[in-house]
Automatic annotation (TrEMBL):
Leader sequence segment: 1-27
Protein name (record): Porin
Keywords: Signal
Top-rank taxon: Bacteria
Length: 451
């Protein structure tokens, strides 16, 4: 066979393959309809029916793949690619101000006013050998923090009562860490959740259904958050977290258990949950360095807990025990959704290089979210509020709301606008919507896609 003939043959094979793939992609992009129990099985309104089961959200937190597009499917295994992407404009007002922490020290605040392609995730997922053994490899990047990682997890399903997982997963501290991403009211978490929550780490977990409508997850991880922490810096202390949730009426709470009744439940859907986390935390770098590597824990005045001088001038805390619990309750009915959550965090057993005025910190707070589909599968209005009863009696809070527009009448593409007033913001960093210490108005406009 000449080189010319070989090239022609290869071109024809490629063209036929792309034609078949484009037909499949069109079917995947049609509006999916979840089955009657909303358990992840999809059928297509028009075009060929794909009798397939998407990967249910078993303790994968933000790492659960989207529906995606099948690249390979054989008797031995399957490979699927899916993506999440989000861009937004963020304006934190006023532009500049000075705020005081609980010790009375002054900090300068410069509010953000910028556009960013904020976050991208690309999932390569599927199963190997048996559909019981699933995998997900994820390319993750957050442009605002200049972080890019590749991580994943492997899970084996024994039966409906028991599934094992190994890889990167969430510390089960608050509701938003248990799989609802990216189906939040806005494009990120509320201030209350963001300020106190644990992060994601490498670990091992088990999850399943105890009895019909009652579920559990238990997680053992390296620490509270793996971001920026090398294995050589870890201690032998493991983080432990557990969550249990009950959906007594319909046995489900919509796709991913997300916020908002986009699916327009004809029967009242309810969800009640409780979670707990314990971790002995380290600052993970030399105590003589003012800025810690452990940036997951902040106090309610917005200051990093392990930062030198956080609790007393010139004193650095090297170790502390983190305990957090939360309870949540939600209801959905005919486009209406009410979500409430109460949480408490205790920091104790401090090991520091000097005397401290406190032996422990106890902070409590709540979040409320109310959502209503004004135009079914098209337009949603929502309100959100968070408030703290904190150790320092600063009482940070937020109140506001926004609008979600779904141009294609499905959750795959959303346009979001939000206005939120914040008071002495406890959350901080460029990952979310908040900068520590701000008192003022934050405006965001964003768009995200999940395929």
């Amino acid at each position: 066979m000449t080189i010319k003939r070989a090239l022609i043959k290869a071109f024809l094979i490629l063209a036929i393959s792309l034609l078949g793939l484009s037909t499949h992609l069109f079917a995947q992009n049609d509006t999916p309809v979840l089955d009657s129990q909303l358990n992840g099985t999809f059928q297509i309104k028009r075009g060929p029916v794909i009798n397939d089961t998407a990967y249910k959200n078993y303790a994968s937190g933000e790492f659960t793949p989207g529906r995606g597009f099948d690249l390979v499917r054989t008797k031995f295994g399957a490979l699927n690619i899916s993506i999440y992407a989000m861009a937004r404009y963020l304006n934190q007002m006023p532009g500049t101000q000075t705020w005081q922490d609980h010790l009375g020290k002054s900090h300068d605040f410069t509010g953000r006013n910028d556009f960013y392609w904020h976050r991208s995730m690309i999932w390569f997922s599927g199963w190997v050998g048996t559909p019981k053994f699933t995998y997900a490899a994820t390319v993750w990047t957050v442009f605002t923090t200049q972080q890019t990682l590749i991580y994943g997890n492997m899970q084996y399903r024994v039966n409906s009562h028991l599934r094992f997982g190994l890889g990167v997963g969430p510390n089960l501290s608050v509701r938003s860490m248990q799989g609802s991403f990216p189906f939040y009211s806005s494009t990120d978490r509320t201030m209350g959740e963001d300020a106190l929550r644990g992060g994601f780490t490498h670990g091992f977990w088990i999850t399943g259904e105890v009895v019909p409508k009652l579920y559990y997850t238990v997680m053992f991880g390296n620490n509270l958050s793996t971001l920026g922490i090398q294995a050589s810096k870890l201690t032998r202390n493991l983080a432990k977290s557990a969550s249990i949730w009950w959906m007594p009426t319909t046995g489900e709470f919509g796709p991913r258990g997300g916020i908002g009744d986009f699916e327009n439940h004809e029967e009242v859907a309810t969800r009640f949950g409780a979670s707990y986390v314990n971790s002995r935390e380290d600052r993970f770098n030399n105590i003589g360095t003012p800025s810690p590597d452990n940036t997951q824990i902040r106090m309610t005045d917005g200051v990093l807990f392990f930062e030198t001088g956080a609790l007393a001038e010139g004193v650095t805390v090297d170790n502390a025990t983190y305990n957090m619990f939360s309870i949540d309750a939600g209801v959905k009915y005919r486009g209406f959704n009410l979500q409430a959550e109460f949480y408490g965090r205790k920091l104790s057993k401090f090991a520091a290089d000097g005397p401290l005025p406190l032996s422990e910190l106890n902070d409590f707070g709540y979040s409320l979210q109310v959502n209503k589909m004004i135009i079914p599968q098209k337009l949603m209005l929502y309100g959100a509020h968070s408030y703290f009863f904190d150790e320092f009696k600063r009482h940070p809070w937020e109140a506001g709301g926004g609008i979600n527009l779904y141009p294609f009448k499905n959750r795959s593409w959303r346009l979001n606008g939000q206005v939120m007033y914040v008071y002495k913001t406890a959350a901080g960093g460029t990952f979310g919507l908040y900068t520590a210490g701000q008192t003022g108005t934050t405006i965001t406009f964003g768009s995200d896609i999940l395929l």
